[in-house]
Amino acid sequence: MPRTSPARRNTLNSPRKRRVDVARRDDLLRQVQEIFLSEGFTTITIGELTERLHCSKATLYSVAATKEQLVVLATKQFFGESAERIEADVATRTDPQAKILTYLSGVANAMRRNSTTFYEDMVSFAPTAEIYARNTARAAERVRELIDDGIREGRFRATDGLFASQLVALAIEGVQSGVLLERTGLSAADAFNELATLLLHGLLHKPR
User: Fold this and answer.
1) Within a domain: residue 208?
2) Residue % of the chain over a pLDDT of 70
3) For residue 20, what are the contacts with CB-CB under 8 A and spacing of at least 6?
4) Residue 90 falls within a domain, yes or no?
5) CATH of the domain at 15
6) Exposed/middle/buried for 143, CB within 10 Å: 0-12, 13-18, 19+?
7) Which residues contact 87 (CB under 8 A, 6 or more apart)?
8) Taking a C-beta distance cutoff of 8 angstroms, is the pair 154, 204 a contact?
9) Residue 168's domain spans which residues?
10) Is residue 151 part of a domain?
11) What is the distance between the alpha carbons of residues 125 and 61, in angstroms, rounded to a whole number?
12) How far apart, in whole angstroms, are the C-alpha atoms of residue 69 and residue 59?
């Protein structure tokens, strides 16, 4: 029986190995994300993470070479996965008003996962603060797109979409930082429901 060369064996085995490695890596990163969202990341060490994840430091360093890189990856994963879930929900709606309500509710649900400690750590660490700012800007832009869609469909009156999007951006930041919640006593979900109501009452056509 002909023998398979080592190179051939590696070629045959590598796809399966890569799939297992990627699955393990994603699972570890998701667990790290949950810990960071719940407790923040400044005070947690790599050693503590490995104990809680029941893995070696070498395994965790295969996900990211440093703790700082791990923090960045986990933060990106959080925002990326949240955006995917929100957009999937928005895609099930056809009415422009329902799309905006669904989008803002989705943002509120995602923000419920952020502890105060995580937020403070995130805005204090330059790489994650940049990720946060970029995603906040994208959220504002997305609401502007939904408003523009409603205007084109005749559901909303022609208004300044840029102003509306900036208003949403400020509201998102205010809720995320806790400033609006502290001043109003609302939960994140209630605050975003109020924002949606405020926007849409100002956008809907009024009967002549």
Assistant:
1) no
2) 84
3) none
4) yes
5) 1.10.357.10
6) buried
7) none
8) no
9) 6-203
10) yes
11) 20
12) 14
Report the alpha-carbon distance of residue 75 to residue 49 in Å, rounded: 16
What lies within 8 Å, CB to CB, of 186 at 6+ separation is: 180, 194
Distance CA(149)–CA(156), nearest Å, equals: 9
Is 178:119 a contact under the CB 8 Å cutoff? yes
pTM: 0.77
Number of structural domains the chain divides into: 1
Q: Which two tokens stand for residue 57?
A: 């430091």
Q: What whole-number distance in Å separates Cα of residue 137 and Cα of residue 189?
A: 20
**Amino acid letter, residue 83:** A
- What tens digit of pLDDT does each residue of 89-121 get? 999 999 988 999 899 888 888 878 888 899 889
Q: Is 1 a domain residue?
A: no
